[in-house]
Amino acid sequence: MIARRLRRRAVPYLYLAPALILLVVWTYRPLVQALELSTYSWNLLPGTSPVTVGGANYERLLKLPSFRESVWRTVVLILGLLPFTVVLPVIICLAARKVSGRARTLYQAMIFTPFLVAPVAAAAVWRWLLHPGTGFVDRLLGSDRNWVYDAATAPWVIVVVTGWQLLGFANLVVAAGMASINGEYEQAARVDGASSWQVHRFITLPLLRPTLLFLVLTTVLLTPILTFPLIDSMTQGGPAQSTTNIYYLLWEYAFHTFDAGLSAAAGVLLFTGFAVVAALLVWMSEKVSFHDD
């Protein structure tokens, strides 16, 4: 009898076992190894042995101006992308309601297409469009500006190109969120004499709050990773490190200066910081969902 109960209780865990094993092997094990490596000094050269330095890598990292500046650039990059992943998708989805039939399908497909473009290919196309003097953008504006290699414009080039790619994904998420809203709410509001603006302001947007918080969370967590191939292909972190965010700086520590311990320390701090932000956003999302219910 006891053995039968144990078998029944073990069945769900057996189904979860493959996913849990992969999660441990490919996520938690590397995290533990990164934490361990952050306490060593090692130049990655064959034949050399890591030297234990304790928390010296963290102390050295926090004193580096390049680290503090890269954190600030990452914050600016995330804030610059939020209009592309939160504001514009809502506007586009509200506008798409006025389009019907095959035109609507084509309309949504055109917006989603950039998300399917490989970042390296997108970087090559945008470098051609932004080529100084002869590029489409300079000819359109009548200017001769080097958009990619100007420290004042290069960070915003990364923001625009990344936002252009993420817009389709965010639009799809918002469209799914709007489709889940019961149409009876709008009908009741129309009967009471509410205008389109009032319907969107007091019904659509409040019911979309969990979806929008999810997009904020996605933007915060994925921005450093998604921008890496664009930065590496277009600016290599320059000019004057103006496009070097925390993720790209971590990579430079590991594969340019060959300081594995410092890179691992940056990775641990990056993971900890984003984990705190993610926990806060998830908590906010649960509060919003509970309030809506």
What structural class do helix, strand and pairing data support?
A: mainly alpha
What gap, in angstroms, lies between the N and C termini?
Answer: 42 Å
Report low-confidence residues grouped into runs of 5 or more. none
Number of strands: 2
- C-alpha Rg (nearest Å): 24 Å
Average pLDDT value? 85
How would the global form be characterised?
flat
Q: Major sheet, described briefly?
A: 2 strands, antiparallel
**Taking strands numbered 1, 2, ... along the chain, how are they ordered across the largest sheet?**
1-2
What is the helix content?
Answer: over 70%
H/E series:
HEEHHHHHHHHHHH
Q: Report the β-strand fraction as a percent range.
A: under 5%
Give a short overview:
The protein is an all-alpha fold and 293 residues long. The chain contains 12 helices and 2 strands.
For this entry, give a set of tags.
single chain; 293 residues; mainly alpha; 12 helices; 76% helix
Structure description:
With 293 residues, the protein is mainly α. The chain is 76% helix and 1% strand. A two-stranded antiparallel sheet has the order 1-2. Helix 7 packs antiparallel against helix 10. The longest helix has 36 residues. It starts with a helix and ends with a helix.
